[in-house]
Amino acid sequence: MEGVDYLADERKKTEFDVEEMKIVWAGSRHTFEVSDRMAKLVANDPVFRKDDRVMLARKDLFKNTLRKATYAWKRINELRLSEEEASKLRSFVDEPAFTDLHWGMFVPAIKGQGTDEQQKKWLPLAYKMQIIGCYAQTELGHGSNVQGLETTATFDPQTDEFVIHSPTLTSSKWWPGGLGKVSTHGVVYARLILDGQEHGIHGFIVQLRSLEDHRPLPGITVADIGMKFGSGAYNTMDNGLLRFDHVRIPRDQMLMRVSQVTRDGKIVQSDVPRQLVYGTMVYVRQTIVQDASIALSRAVCIATRYSAVRRQFGSSNGGPETQVIDYKTQQSRLFPLLASAYAFRFVGEWLKWLYTDVTQRLQANDFSTLPEAHACTAGLKSLTTSVTADGIEESRKLCGGHGYLASSGLPELFAVYVPACTYEGDNTVLMLQVARFLMKTVSQLGSGKPPVGTISYMGRIEQLMQCRCAVKKAGDWLNPNAVLEAFEARAARMSVSCAQKLSKFSNPEEGFAELSADLVEAAVAHCQLIVVSKFFEKLQQDIPGKGVKRQLEVLCGVYSLHLLHKHQGDFLATSYITPKQASLANDQLRELYSQVRPNAIALVDAFNYTDHYLGSILGCYDGNVYPKLYEAAWRDPLNDSVIPDGYEQYIRPLLKQQLRVAKL
Ligand SMILES: CCCCCCCCCCCCCCCCCCCCCC(=O)SCCNC(=O)CCNC(=O)[C@H](O)C(C)(C)COP(=O)(O)OP(=O)(O)OC[C@H]1O[C@@H](n2cnc3c(N)ncnc32)[C@H](O)[C@@H]1OP(=O)(O)O
Ligand SMILES: Cc1cc2nc3c(=O)[nH]c(=O)nc-3n(C[C@H](O)[C@H](O)[C@H](O)COP(=O)(O)OP(=O)(O)OC[C@H]3O[C@@H](n4cnc5c(N)ncnc54)[C@H](O)[C@@H]3O)c2cc1C
């Protein structure tokens, strides 16, 4: 039944202007238009087909990715796409590729850590893709502990070169994306050694492969690290291994914005903090936060549409059964994820602003906001990727058995997404960085330097330690001030409690290690507060469109109250709320679910995803799920023949043998 909208009745229930919500979701009318144009460009081009991806063997999959990535690059040039358009096109192609690391890490590393001269030399080559780069930091033995990397870069004053070397097996670079088969160059992180003395970890531009025949250069061993989790998924990427046997590079290939090595082998520190060597990771962490809302919204879009199509139980007098989206249990699992997708969208927008601000300040040698930028990017990367990865898996369960089919799009989405909890900093390790920032802030309270930015609430510590929740009826939980104070008091009290326990240890590092699980919980509370407060800030903006702001208020309520409900132990244990008030929050939450329900389909339509991008039969726009599932089953290569390959060899002899047993 081509053209029939099986979700039309659902769409009729909508109480807000979906077109305007699309603009809010995109961030601006301009971004919406660019996004819409690029999504359609990709969806209408057969080269970008992806439904066969999970069936392809690794070599075919990889070659296919090369084909798509180079074709995308060709189209970008032919159509003279702007950087914004190119970046949208890349995201709608929806296939991890070496180009991500080239543009997403190699280029930013040179921009952030290279001197003007180095940028002038290397960036034009990289912009034209005349060289292809990767970010080679992690090693077989060390990933989280960057200071523990073993690769060495020893300066040879005789020849004015660095000798890059892998002294042990564990010093082999391991994981860099694009390294395995494609990159010609890498920004390689290594331990700087001058005259026998170590000077910490620095980045070096190292050529890895010949620009003539792509063979590894002398002294370089390079290969792919092998298959990863899931079919299709991240296996489109050639994550690589790399060993150096005394490879020589000119001195001017050390990235020298943070520290310089002079001709006579002396180190000169510029006034830039050493942590800027980690700057590329900060940049990518903020892009990962923005991408979290995309991945979560995709999963939620699929689960929401399918939940409206799917019916199970509840038929009376031969009438239709209940749509599973009408079950309160389904709503209590699905709607918080829908609200989280919106919440992450807005916090991602804000984080982009924060990152731009800190970058501008750094250019003017103002490093004052760097610690907060590090804590926010690390903490929000950790929080949003953990929730998104769990949310994709929950969406799969929300779709019942059919969610487990590759054609639901959810297994591959999960497999592609889940490493985000590990790459660019393991989520626990990153939360511990936030915890350090919190403990430092608490220890400096009363020093006369008031905390600013996202941590400014700590400046009201006395009030936050004493205040009690004033909520008397469920509706009081709709008051933003009540919710904000609850999240602030919880975060402040959890931090102070950790700081008090820490102060009992004579060795603070031992104390930090002993209390690390509690510290992570305090850091999570702080990060959740940031997300809640940025959602409220968004609502203070002028948001046009009938009913749009109202819907966002409902979602903001769902986001904050579901967190309050889920973590009520924290709120109760810190004595900010009473059990009665916790129960009222839950009553209000249930009421909010009822307000989301008629708008649920429109709220996911507002993501404006094409069927191509969603890549899911269960999530298709028209909701015509069953015929499509049936047809897709027949397209599986296993159904090419009625009798499977292997029948003569295995099944027939087996059946024959059983026959003999039966006769005995
Ligand atoms: C086709 C078309 C083309 C289109 C064109 C357009 C296309 C565009 C395409 C765009 C695509 C984009 C998508 C990209 C794809 C992504 C894919 C994913 C790839 C994944 C890559 C990776 O996976 S890549 C490796 C990441 N690997 C880590 O992530 C290690 C974590 N490990 C650490 O990060 C450190 O090891 C750790 C723990 C901090 C301790 O570091 P440590 O031991 O040195 O330091 P301490 O803990 O002692 O801290 C000492 C003091 O430094 C402070 N501090 C620490 N870090 C700081 C920091 N960053 N900034 C500021 N300050 C910092 C701290 O706050 C302390 O401050 P204080 O002293 O004041 O307290
Ligand atoms: C798909 C993918 C792509 C990647 N791409 C790149 C790339 O392009 N370039 C690159 O350089 N790297 C890349 N990486 C590597 C990645 O950055 C690291 O794997 C990541 O930083 C985690 O480090 P690890 O593997 O050493 O984990 P580990 O640190 O060994 O983590 C193991 C466990 O130990 C725990 N742990 C570790 N330290 C602490 C601590 N101090 N306190 C408490 N718990 C701790 C962790 O929480 C985790 O549970 C990629 C990884 C993946 C999976």
Automatic annotation (TrEMBL):
Classification via InterPro entries: ACOX_C_alpha1, Acyl-CoA_ox_N, Acyl-CoA_Oxase/DH_mid-dom_sf, Acyl-CoA_oxidase, Acyl-CoA_oxidase_C, AcylCo_DH-like_C, AcylCoA_DH/ox_N_sf, AcylCoA_DH/oxidase_NM_dom_sf
GO MF assignments: acyl-CoA oxidase activity; FAD binding; fatty acid binding
Active site location: 424 (proton acceptor)
Domain Acyl-CoA oxidase C-terminal: 479-656
SUPFAM superfamilies: Acyl-CoA dehydrogenase C-terminal domain-like (SSF47203), Acyl-CoA dehydrogenase NM domain-like (SSF56645)
Domain annotation Acyl-coenzyme A oxidase N-terminal: ranges: 17-132
Superkingdom, taxonomy of origin: Eukaryota
Cofactor list: FAD
GO biological process: fatty acid beta-oxidation using acyl-CoA oxidase; lipid homeostasis; long-chain fatty acid metabolic process
Compartments, as annotated in UniProt: Peroxisome
Residues given in the record as FAD binding sites: 138, 177
Keywords on record: FAD, Fatty acid metabolism, Flavoprotein, Lipid metabolism, Oxidoreductase, Peroxisome
Cross-referenced Pfam families: ACOX, ACOX_C_alpha1, Acyl-CoA_ox_N
Signal sequence, start to end: none
Acyl-CoA oxidase C-alpha1 domain ranges (all copies): 278-439
GO cellular component: peroxisome
UniProt KW Nuclease keyword: no
Membership in a protein family: Belongs to the acyl-CoA oxidase family.
PANTHER family named in the record: ELECTRON TRANSPORT OXIDOREDUCTASE, PEROXISOMAL ACYL-COENZYME A OXIDASE 1
Name recorded for this polypeptide: Acyl-coenzyme A oxidase
Native species: Oldenlandia corymbosa var. corymbosa
